[in-house]
Amino acid sequence: MNVTELRPGNYFIDEGNLYQVLDILLNKTAMRKMVAKVKAKNMRTGAITELARNSGYDVEKAMLEKKKMAYLYDSGDFLVFMDNNTYEQIEIEKKKLEWELNFLTENLEIDILFYEDEILGITLPSSVALKIVDCEPAVRGDTVNKAMKNATLETGYRLRVPLFIDNGETISVRTDNGEYDGRA
Question: What is the rounded distance in angstroms from the CA atom of residue 103 to the CA atom of residue 126?
Fold first, then answer.
């Protein structure tokens, strides 16, 4: 397909690299051909790059597959996931999922992204319910701004929560930025 036909969210292969389009800007001046400036994420390395290509440049469109799987357990260097329909299990290196590890609990349903037989990563739900295992006591009178205190979740992740949240409560946490989202 032509590079000018790409839209945000599309996947394509260019020079052997697999990319996801984050943004595209088409620039046409009177004196030169149209130039497509593509802000893209390399799906294998996670690096975000800006590619500039002329309008006649072709890229190969890539079709990725999402598969619903459940997180089972941590086996040391790998995380184990299972397809609930076929009971097929796969392992993904722990170092590939450092951020996602903060929100994974047993039996959490997630989407795993595949390109052919290659596992590219996982997609978490927008928010997850996690239990607080350690929480600072509320300090009375500390309400000048939005009063928050430190808390540790069952996965070991630390975040700031409102003063009215106590140990043992289950809260909703956003997976994109790791912030408190409300009571679960």
Answer: 11
Q: What is the pLDDT of residues 125-153, one digit of tens each?
A: 899 999 999 988 877 665 666 778 889 99
The residue to which tokens 């097929």 are assigned: 88
Query: How many Å apart are CA 42 and CA 34, to the nearest integer?
Result: 24
Chain position carrying tokens 């076929």: 86
- For residue 11, give its domain range: 3-61
Determine the Cα–Cα distance for residues 176 and 66; give it in Å rounded to an integer: 19
Q: Which two tokens stand for residue 175?
A: 């997976």
9 with 57, same domain: the answer is yes
**Model pTM?**
0.73
* CA–CA separation, 60 and 18 (whole Å): 9
Secondary structure of residue 91 in the 3-state scheme: strand
CA 135 to chain CA centroid, Å, is 27
